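Input record (one chain):
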Amino acid sequence: MVIALLILVAACSSDDSAESNAPASTTTTTESSNTTQAPGPMVVRSPSFQDGEPIPVEFTCDGSDINPRLDVTDIPTNVDFAVLIVEDPDAPLGTWIHWVEYDIPVEGGTLTIEEAAGPIGVQGVNSWNLPGYGGPCPPEGETHEYIFTVYVLSEALGLPGGVEVEMVRQAMTDETVGQTELRGTYGR
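The corresponding structure, as predicted from the sequence alone:
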């Protein structure tokens, strides 16, 4: 009986060591293949600048003052509309709104906002009290951060054009399914 117990303990020990000596890539490969099959989290990117990096001059008040291209991927399937808000939290007078658009149609799990897009949904007003995009324009000698946030909604907000960002934020409270953001900087 003691011999049988020793053989059993030795067999378990050798199985444990065989498992610990197995290549780690076996487990990693399985996890990686599962991860690539499942949709990832929603993300917004731009081919013009990387997250946290400087925004090129052409997209600012010192250049052409046009919006950069934005690509949103892995949008949940129960989404039909998006909201885009671009803001500068570093502005001297408080957060400065650079772009507000809502009820932007979404189809097929992706959204592409082309460079110099013009109206893409219903336009709200920015902090200049104008519709559409107004590029980064910090005071001389300052570098500010600009946050491009895309919210995805289960239903359209149905607001009239020309409303301020606070009204958009309030209206989308119960409709928001998810959000993602891209941050860029600009200094003068």
